[in-house]
């Protein structure tokens, strides 16, 4: 925070005030609270008591920011985080409403495209078989091959690795435990069939 303020030629409270003036405390409400100071930021010092003894006390860094409206500690921490990251190469950036609209329309276009691709993939995906895999044609159907002639273990494993992320029950685009188990069954059947 000190380096961000120094780079802009101002004090830390002035940088936070500028951020609050530019962004506004209301805009910060949806941001996560960066939290209290880290233990490494907390220091200790020795103070002399009235009776002549000494005592070690904890010193937590405090930041005082004057603003038109009263601010709670979380809002000041959020403003400090925003002020420190805006303009950094790896931090947040301010964009215009037009740029935001362009990004949102591109995201909508990508969402629509993803829905179209998911629907196409669902159409092209194999329909789960009702019975266990007992014949090579069933295994090749599940793995998307036209026939079992000319297949080798590398081709079967490669096809399985291509299809498994699509149908994986936890992370797949078309997550399906039934399809995933049939993929495993088909791969194992074909590998066994190729060995015999």
From TrEMBL:
It comes from the Bacteria. This is J domain-containing protein. It comes from Azospirillum formosense.
């Amino acid at each position: 925070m000190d380096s961000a303020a120094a780079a802009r030629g101002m004090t830390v409270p002035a940088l936070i005030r500028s951020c609050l003036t530019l962004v506004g405390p209301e805009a910060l409400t949806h941001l996560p609270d960066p939290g209290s100071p880290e233990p490494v930021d907390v220091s200790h010092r020795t103070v002399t008591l009235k009776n002549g003894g000494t005592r070690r006390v904890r010193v937590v860094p405090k930041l005082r920011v004057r603003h038109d409206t009263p601010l709670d500690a979380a809002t000041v921490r959020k403003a400090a985080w925003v002020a420190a990251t805006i303009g950094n190469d790896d931090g947040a950036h301010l964009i215009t409403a037009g740029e935001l609209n362009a990004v949102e329309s591109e995201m909508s276009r990508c969402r629509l495209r993803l829905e179209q691709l998911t629907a196409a993939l669902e159409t092209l995906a194999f329909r789960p078989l009702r019975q266990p895999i007992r014949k090579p044609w069933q295994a090749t159907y599940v793995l998307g091959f036209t026939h079992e002639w000319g297949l080798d273990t590398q081709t079967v494993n490669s096809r399985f690795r291509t299809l498994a992320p699509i149908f994986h029950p936890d992370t797949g685009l078309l997550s399906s435990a039934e399809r995933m188990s049939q993929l495993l069954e088909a791969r194992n059947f074909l590998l066994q069939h190729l060995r015999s």
